[in-house]
Recover the amino acids of this structure.
């Protein structure tokens, strides 16, 4: 068992002791949960450039995949653009660093241009 001062130090620093880690269990579910948490912090940790997809990006990915499978479904394309716009807005407004905010701005510009050209070509 870990000495009390080590346990207190870990608690203050936000880390778990080995005893707490052992209680969480092991296996594929733990590995996926740990990978998801690490991915949400971003990589590299000091200047996050890449993160695991957050919900709006997962939503956009599902719309894109559905559009590919359905062969050009207008609803699936709308889901894709809505998810991408939500992700881009969140990155632009609350990105972790300048690169993430620039990525959000580029994503939002892409959505505006793509939706604008789709509306321009649509019959009235």
């Amino acid at each position: 068992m870990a000495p009390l001062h080590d346990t207190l130090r870990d608690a203050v620093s936000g880390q778990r002791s080995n005893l707490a880690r052992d209680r969480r269990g092991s296996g594929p579910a733990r590995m996926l949960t740990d990978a998801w948490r690490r991915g949400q912090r971003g990589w590299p940790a000091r200047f996050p450039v890449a993160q695991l997809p957050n919900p709006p990006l997962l939503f956009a990915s599902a719309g894109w995949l559905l559009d590919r499978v359905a062969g050009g479904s207008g609803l699936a394309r709308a889901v894709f653009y809505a998810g991408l716009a939500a992700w881009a807005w969140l990155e632009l407004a609350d990105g972790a660093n300048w690169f993430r905010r620039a990525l959000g701005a580029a994503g939002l510009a892409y959505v505006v241009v793509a939706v604008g050209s789709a509306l321009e070509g649509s019959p009235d």
In short: The helical segments are 4-13, 18-23, 28-41, 55-70, 74-94, 98-121.
